[in-house]
Amino acid sequence: MIIKSILKSKLTVPVLAFVCALYLTVVQNATFFKAVFAALNKTGHGNLPFETAIVVSLTLLFFLLLSLLASIKPLFKPVLMVILVVAAVVSFFMDTYGVVIDDSMIQNLMETDYNEATELFNVK
Q1: Owning domain of residue 93
Q2: pLDDT at 95 over 90
Q3: What is the pTM of this model?
Q4: 72 vs 61, 75, 81, 114, CA distance in Å?
């Protein structure tokens, strides 16, 4: 009964922005959090409050940016879809190939030709 009422209710723009911010933080940045938490745990002290603050801060930052984007109603959903797809692709490449996406990587991406790009896509 409760699930039925949740599924029938409309998803408002702020709720959508928050859910997407939470998704971007937790799912798409899992590798980042593994590295940060591993570095923090080397000290041997209890870092749970600091780790929680990092997750909450990043979620709120994404929520703030998505809320600013939501102020432009016609562009919100299409741009949000692009952001989610780009985040998934970047996360996949970072997890699979162990690379860090920075300015030079984006420049290399823009200078890559078709033959180089097709070498990255293969069936595993």
Answers
A1: 12-98
A2: no
A3: 0.77
A4: 18, 6, 15, 35
